[in-house]
Amino acid sequence: MGVAAKIAPSMLSSDFANLASEAHRMLKDGADWLHMDIMDGHFVPNLTLGAPVIQSLRKHTEAYLDCHLMVTNPLDYVEPLAKAGASGFTFHVEVSKDNWQELVQRIKSKGMTPGVALKPGTPIEEVFPLVEGEIHVDMVLVMTVEPGFGGQKFMPETMDKVRTLRKKYPSLDIEVDGGLGPSTIDIAASAGANCIVAGSSVFGSPEPAKVISVLRTSVEESQKK
Ligand code: DX5
Ligand code: ZN
């Protein structure tokens, strides 16, 4: 028995001017979660959206909003995002080494699901304490590109980290993000990823439902092996 497949289109690749209809389109096409990339122009050289946009979208959908915080001070975002209606709150380990316990505790106390993300160059050992602690995260997001932009090339060398995690934690939610699509899903799924973020491959396709279904089938088939 494996962990459930969650396919999460990255709304970064959607038409922001029509966010609600883009979200509805993805859900109708089979998305489990909506991946929301929050950037501060500091942790990464790009600026996207924050709590006000999450709040606006929340009025149009009850879907799980999987928020990926590419920001230097994630603690500052807990309260506003909880109020806005975020579901998952995934922060980066690179900026949370000193306060992750407080951060996880606050995220949970606000009713959100805590996750930790790591950049391609960050060793996997850095997230072990966050998974194993008494107060712990429920998901690890292994970045498969450098965070900041959609449409980049998948980095297969990050798969060692996914394999290590899956071996150590058979029932952990492991998310991959960056360059995922029909041509890269099999390597990620067989390494053990079950939560799949996909931006350009889904939004760039004339048939997003088909892409979502290919991603899901790959995760499900890998788990039977
Ligand atoms: C990149 C973001 C990703 C991005 C993925 O920093 O975290 O979620 O939108 O986009 P694709 O699937 O196009 O690589
Ligand atoms: Zn992301």
Q: Care to describe what's here?
A:
It catalyses: D-ribulose 5-phosphate = D-xylulose 5-phosphate. With 225 residues, this protein is of the alpha/beta class. The protein has one domain (6-224): Aldolase class I (TIM Barrel), CATH 3.20.20.70. 36% of the residues lie in helices and 19% in strands. It is built from nine helices and eight strands. Helix 2 packs parallel to helix 3 (75-84). It is globular. The mean pLDDT is 98. Bound molecules: D-xylitol-5-phosphate (DX5) and zinc ion.
CATH superfamily annotation? Aldolase class I
CATH class: Alpha Beta
Number of helices: 9
Quickly give the structural class: alpha/beta
Mean pLDDT rating: 98
Strand order across the largest sheet: 1-8-7-6-5-4-3-2
Compute the number of strand runs.
8
Low-confidence stretches: none
Active site: 37, 177
InterPro entries: Aldolase_TIM, Ribul_P_3_epim, Ribul_P_3_epim-like, RibuloseP-bd_barrel
Binding site for a divalent metal cation: 35, 37, 68, 177
Binding site for substrate: 10, 68, 148-151, 179, 199-200
Summarize the entry for a quick read.
It is an enzyme of class 5 (isomerase). The chain has a single domain (about 5-225), classed as Alpha-Beta Barrel (TIM Barrel).
Keywords:
225 residues; alpha/beta; TIM Barrel; eight-stranded parallel sheet; 9 helices; 36% helix; 19% strand; globular; binds D-xylitol-5-phosphate; binds zinc ion; Ribulose-phosphate 3-epimerase
